[in-house]
Amino acid sequence: MVDKLTDFISRFYVAIIAVFLYAPIAVLIVLSFNKSRSRVVWEGFTLDWYISLIHNRQIQSALMTTLALAFLSAFISLIIGTAAALGISSMKRRSHRTMMVLTNIPMLNADIVTGIALMLWMIQFMPLGFNSVLLSHITFNIPYVILAVLPKVKMMNLSIYNAGRDLGAGPLRAFFMLILPQLKDGMLSGFFMAFTMSMDDFVITYFTKGAGVNTLSTMIYGEIRKGIKPEMYALSTIIFTVVFGVLLVANGNTIGTKERKRGYE
Amino acid sequence: MDKYLNKRKNLAYPYVVWSVGFTVIPLIVILRYALLDRTGAFTLSNILAIVDPVNLKALIFSLEIAGGCTLICILLAYPLVLALKRLNFGGRRSTIFILILPMWMNFILKLLAWQMILSSNGILNLVLSRMGIGSIDISNTYISIMIGVVYDYLPYMVLPLYDAVSAIDDDIIEAAEDLGAKKLTVFGRIIFPLSIPGLMSGITMVFVPSMTSFVTADILGGGKLQLVGNIIEQEFIQSMDWNMGAGLSVALMIFVLISMAFTVEKHEQSDRQEETAW
Amino acid sequence: MGNIILELRGISKSFDGKKILDDLTLDIEKNEFVTLLGPSGCGKSTLLRIIGGFVKPDSGQVFFEGQDITLLPPEKRQVHTVFQKYSLFPHMNVSDNIAFGLKLKKKPKEYINEKVRYALHLVNMDGYGDRMTTSLSGGQQQRIAIARAIVNEPKMLLLDEPLGALDLKLRHEMQRELMRIKHEVGITFVYVTHDQEEALTMSDRIVVMNQGIIQQMGTSKSIYDEPQNAFVADFIGDSNIINGIMLKDRLVLIQGIEVECVDEGFDANEPVDVVIRPEDLIIGTKGSGFTNGIVTNLIYKGAYYDISVTAGTHEWSVQSNVPAAVNSEVSLSIDPENIQIMRKPKSSDEEVIDKLG
Question: Where are the domains of chain A?
Fold first, then answer.
């Protein structure tokens, strides 16, 4: 039947795109188990790179810097961005629009321009290093939080807050007990998005980091010409597997139960 | 009405301060660098340097790559989004899951993996020759750069499109079929026009970054093919001519602003339609 | 048989292993206003979607004017649907929405304009052609949805709870409108609703459904006056449903009291459901009826009083034009003609109802 054929083609197409998205990842995972240091030849299975990873101080410190940046920038963006989303949603049309333009600038501007502009500005009052990178990451992360939380704020039932205050809850208590739970989903996805963007960023970090600080991205970039250390493949495989596991558990409920097909009331 | 919430807009002030401090002022600073020469005198030559033959060539090449990448992403994304909607693929979260998970593998490493896949004695050719098709040599060409940027930015096209298309009520599609529309007509008359806001944000999220993705050009173009991003990076890192680099950045930004103004306009239109609904 | 436009033969459909429609057979006549009535989940919407072509039945066939259309896609059927949520195309104005089907059929421009004008007039929306659909109220949107379907001159119009999202006053107004439109265009209407009042007002024939099977079919009057089982009695209008024992022909035992009725043909001492409409119970002075009771509640409903009378272990619901004081002792009497005796349900499908009685 035509329906079945269309279903088959749809599945096939989704599978092809998935292969396209995951092919290089498969290559990297294979490389992390390759005895050869060279990227081209397969010389047999080994776990050596995973073991030597434990002793590689350089990679470990880059990992720590990357994680610290991702966590701190996502966390601070979450706070500023959520507050901003609450504020923006209550603004009148014109200020609302101005705020949205401000929010869109870091999203729409080319990374390289954002990175250079931040670098040119920050060198005027602070040394480039971890802090300057952190400030930059927060800058490009806040919009992701705002865009994730704002729709939830617009859907939120505000009368609950008023009812809570009427029933005697203080403003802070009412906020944490009545407003935040309604925004939880948006905040979670905003935080996750920000964390991912920070981990994945290269360009802005590259321009704002100064000497001495390295994230995994900038470290890898520096190694391109001399050759990537195989430990890096091992570390990437670990990170990928961990995130895959975490996401799988977090999404477990929703992936298993497909939304019911329409058809009966 | 909002008895307790009338001061809510104050909550946005920390962000306003941050935005001015780290978005607006840096843009003014870069503009200032762009408009001064090394001695500190006013000049337009840094910005106009974009029409220099070498730079212009890079800009045109960037536009070609970005335009091609955007087009390919659109052509790949629509069938994907429709297939995901049709298969009722576990809802939005699993779709996002599949598209975002690859971001957790470092993008430079992934580009290096593509380099290995596409190189003349790489995995792709190995597979092709096993299948008896023979080999192709596309390494260090614009084709491999194109594959790289499409790979990098396809998720940014798919996500907003997916949101826009899955927001279309099934009833509306059924109503169109009920009134006699075939699948293709439903797409042309209903799904496509209603997905335009998503398409617009997809285009901005793909077009601009793919113009400047200098690492992709570096790794997959073998250093021979330069995007405008490569030129700017070289001015800063190699030539240490910050004014020139800033000038080229500002020139680039003008292109971005033009495209942004265009899409913001579109968004506003669709926003307005939504609001009147309430 | 020439009058039958749609035949449903042995339609069954399951979703996720749950049976929604069970071997259902139904004929619909030309120009009939048929209402599928039932609680949510009874399968009425699924049946409508099968007629519309959006759902394929697992087994069974659909014939339209004698042709088997079971597998025909919706766009090829001469049947149009008005959806509950209006489903107007949000990016088109009112005229473009109405003209959608005609444009697809490549009708000439003047013809389309003329038809759109006619359709707008038919639904009392003259002059709204250039408005965006999103700027209209719910009632207006539903009128446009009806115009959009009717303009294509379908032989049958399917309406899936089209008034469900409207407020009460507007709903009454739209009911009259729908009947007028039906009268003017003279096509078959198949209407789905869970609102019994809506069904009773508009339909030529009501099909009461529950648990995927037809419980009863007939005119509004026959369904209301002579429900065939406790489910229909309970679902249509308010009813007192009480357990009884049929002592012999024309005599039933309710709560230990022998009451005269007009039903015959039951086994001696057969357990039955006794159904009495609240408006059929008459309140009188103590001792003048078949039972005495205490008034426990009184609610003024505008046109009548809703009175609860507790007699023994049963609370009777009574509708009366005159009030009765709470806590006063009264009697209940009834005309034997107004007592409905029903056999207890035997199939598992009907069992749920048993718990209500």
Answer: 55-227
